[in-house]
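ingest -> fold -> write
write: protein_1
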Amino acid sequence: MKLKEVIKIVKRLYNDYTKKYLGRVIVALLLSVVVAGSTSSIAWLLDPAVKKIFIDQDKTYAIFIPILVIFAFAGKGISLYFARLIVIVLGNRIKQAIQIKMASNILFSDSQTIESKHTGKYISTFLYDVGMVQELVSNGVLNIMKDSLTLITLTCLMFYQNWKLAIFSLIMMPLAAIVAKSLGKRMGKAATESVISSGNFTTLISEILRGSKIIKIYQREEFEKNRSSDAIKHLTDTQIKIGKVQIRAAPIMETLTGFMIAGFIYYSGSLIAQGEIGINNFFSFLAAMMLAYQPVRSLATINMLIYQGAAAADRCFKIIDRDIQIKQEDKFPELKIKRSKIKFEDVSFQYKTGKERAIKNINLEIEGEKITALVGHSGAGKSTILNLIPRFYEPQNGKIILDDQEINKVSLSSLRNNISLVSQDVILFDDSIENNIRYAKQDAKEIDVKNACRLAAADEFIEKLPNKYETVIGENGVRLSGGQKQRISIARAILKNSPIILLDEATSSLDADSEEKVQNAIFNLTKNRTTLVIAHRLSTINKADKIILMKEGKVLKSGTHTQLLKTSKEYESLYKKQMMH
């Protein structure tokens, strides 16, 4: 990352997140002044301590100076505590603000944008990258203020005691700074590599946890063990590299300090012999010089913290700044539902990862208040059509019209408010059954929730559970069977009571008995409602008012089940295959 980019990111961090806390930063700065003054006063007090206590043997000073030393150390400790407390709160507030903005962008982004990045990468950004930004804002800001002021006050004290020795010391300090800066750059590279490794590891672990059953059935435990071992090893190696760079500074800085002290003692000896500096001044100067090396090392390596934090902030900002393609537009009117008739006019759509268009110049009508079924082999474009209606994706060409209103020119919230979805990939939350069903309608009455479960044939198994509707179902309903999860999902859609219902293989996980009950409930529910069904089972296809046959992203034929059997060889073949199952 170039210096210009770093400056730009740091300025943005200040303007967007830190500026509102400027009052707290000023207080931390004032406390840093106290820390710097206290540190310098400790070194300065050695001057009168040596002269008055050890040379003049003044008993008054023997009591007075130790008391001042206690106050100096206490003042430094208390001021540093409150300064750190302020920047810790500040760093966490900024971390919180960035995480909220990232979460907001992800929640309101269209599905295709979200799916373009692995969930593990998102988690890594939320945890590791934001942590680095917090480190930059808290420790970076405090160290710059505290160490800069401390170095300035100690340097002034050194010049006050003896300008010749001060100049001699300042010649050596840049050497220490150059070494520390070089180590800081290496540290920055290693830390960035560590973040990338952490992200890859998070991605791998999330896949292992999500795909545990697939791993077991294909007996790929050893393969995944080796893969995870390699990822852990790489992560460990990068962290060891960071540790090595960190401890490498110690011998180099200690050796430089040794040369510095040796040269200082030799040179100061001649100055003491010539009477240019007293023993008391010498000890005070020595203390100031030794104390100055800590802020020199800290400031020299601050570039590592800045570059590392700026790179992490850049990754966070890429999520925050990502343009939301499909969003709520307050200027658009509310959708007005009449009969919920849906029309596709020359609609084409291509996924970002796909080489070919998923659907190609589709023209079709989904009759209002009737059941329409989409059939065809996998990859025909059925799910794409279903996902375009609630605007999970935006078509590249064409129009989708609902009751003579283009769906991209009406309020997004009013569009989705009129649509219920039941998918084959059931999404449930690690919460109670009741809360999962209420997700569709938070203010629903208890009787409505139970009625929805009855219609979805879910009440049968819920009533048998120890905690009934209060049963917590685990991550994505892991404590339920596939059929039970599907019925809860259907109950949730029934509770919403929308005029448009989208069913994507909604009964795929049900046994014959449950399917019959749920199908009866669904078809009772869909009276006077527009229903679009994707299903392979004959029970759904036979009862549909209209069936649309698709192949390779195009509409081949449409009509009733009886009509298609007579007019379409493709449909007849599909029907016979289903009959065989």
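write: protein_2
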Amino acid sequence: MPVSTIEKPRRELQLKVTGMHCASCAAAVQGAIEAKPGVRSASVSVIDGLATVLGENLHTETIVDAVRDRGYHAEPIIDRPAPAELRSEIELRQARQERLWRFRAIVGLGIWAPMALLHWTVSEVWVPWVMLIGSTIVLATAGAGFYRSAIAAALRRTTNMDTLIAIGATTAYVFSLVVFISGFIGRNLEQPLYFGEAAALLGIISLGHWLEARATAKAGSAVRELLHLQPDEAELVDEHGQVRTIPSAEVQPGDRMLVRPGARVPVDGTVVEGASDVDQAVVTGESVPVSKTCGDLVVAGSVNTTGRLVVEATVDGHHTTIARIAQLVQRAQSSKANIQRLADRVCAVFVPAVLMIALVTFLGWWIAGDLPKGVVATVTVLIISCPCALGLATPMAVMVATGAASRHGILVKSAVALELAGRARHVVFDKTGTLTAGQPTLSEIHPADQSVTEESMLRLAAAVEAPSEHPIGRAIVRAAQQRQLDIPVVSGFQAIPGEGVRGKVDGQLVEVRRSESMTCRVLVDGQEVGMMMVADALRDDAAKAVARLHDMGLKVTMLSGDRRAVAEAVGREVGLDPSEIEAEATPESKAELVANLPPGSVMIGDGINDAAALAEADLGIAMASATNIAIESADVVIPSDHVMAVPETIELARKTLSTIKQNLFFAFCYNVAAIPAAALGLLGPHGPLIAAIAMGASDITVIGNALRLKRHLASMLRH
């Protein structure tokens, strides 16, 4: 598609890149993008064909041209597609890849199997002809994709993993063809034919790619599953009460939608009619339905369980919570962790290095006087060296982990965030809105003597606090309203910064002032009539989460703006020592404390007043509501009522990091051990066939390890 040359410069671009086949292709695209002025970083995923570019004054046309100059096709993603369109696009792309590799595998192995049977059981003169014809068909069909990719890379003066496969298969085929023709014209070279091996390695490698495509689709199913949760259609209610059905993508803000019992909410909105319990597990991970009535927010994908609701849309059908979550997950799955940089650097130089090793192997055996063995060893080196497993090691694990997390309401924004969570050493909680619910309530009333009742004292305190916006004042007023007390009007209201409030109530001077022993004390005409305690209720799982973090060997600190006595009281309830509590902290001091922590710091806040501290931490985790899920200052977003998501996220990240290290270790060891064995001819005359099987096995091992992680994470998060 054409790109406008007068487009406004941007700070972030997303491209859809096609034509990539391997990790070295992705590295080539990434290198081309990062070479352009203004680009700070680029992340390119061969698995889902996405490129994310960050920088300053980015011009789409310049970036697209850089990718196209490398021989790949790129299109800018200008606007977010509708969930149904994106879901269809993902499914079609994955189905196309799987179908392509299945065809190549069936052709390659379907022809090679009878060829191999003939080779080992029949000694007729026509058998070599059958081997030649069969091998030629396999190279022309199953090998066509490898050759196109290798030739395209050569025209760009670069190489990729298909280069190794194409050269290996061609070398085996051409060597066999020379031996065959020589025998046909009467000059018998007395060398074996490797037509079968040439066909087999293409068939086996295609089989490996087919299994890889199937496993990748399974590992990356999280985005599709999320998008499936948003209904394709919505029932609109017009001003006359008539109902008509339209695609949910066409819903606009202000439209009213009918949501029947058992149906999913099509688009985020506000309930304007009816009452029901709504299952919001799609965004919170919790399956307990939440009561909704007029004025309450509901999000796309949540299930209306009982009553009939009419919901007024607050966003259009393209920008729902489901779509935003899916976009975050997809971006995280295509991002790269720091640990992958080594693998990327290796992949970038690996193919040229292997070609050099193959040339040295060939020349070495030729000089040693055993040219046929040199050909076999060279082909074996080319095939067994393909670093497919190395390229899959990190992205497969990241895809599995971010997908598993998203299914439980935990949004990890990038692979880097996942890696940082796995290396966490010190967890810092902001008290209000994280360990506590963030809504102070009046918990205790202590009249000074029997002449003062709780109701009379609360009535006066609520009157003077009524004009105040302070959370403590709001809590006192709510308590009076819940007791259905008559709250008189205050006159001469005055707020005393850092101390409290005062005003005239029923002709008396009433003051609510700060107290050292409790939250506040109430004075009438200068005489103290009692004290009150306003506390922020702990979240149900706060103590359990802190205990779990301690069990995991993590240091835990709680930050609070409250006085030390109040902060320590909360700390005791969640299992923290006084040394683990920082009281009377301001937003500035919180940010400074977090900034001075050693590496491995994690800050958990509500994403509103804690933005500075979240940004200063190595990793910021925001506890956010479903409608405010993409908080920019945080690297990870977890449900606002689920503190246990913090240790779950860290444990998930640790297991993912462990899996990545296992995959990288296996991939490196495989190549380090396999290349010398192949070059020295230790794999014997059937080395190319063994190499193809070994390469496919290495890919399957890495993929299998990632899928094992998926099952493990699903079990862990479920419990």
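write: annotation protein_2
Residues 10-79 form a domain with the Alpha-Beta Plaits fold (CATH 3.30.70.100).
Residues 1-6 have pLDDT under 50 and may be disordered.
pipeline exit 0
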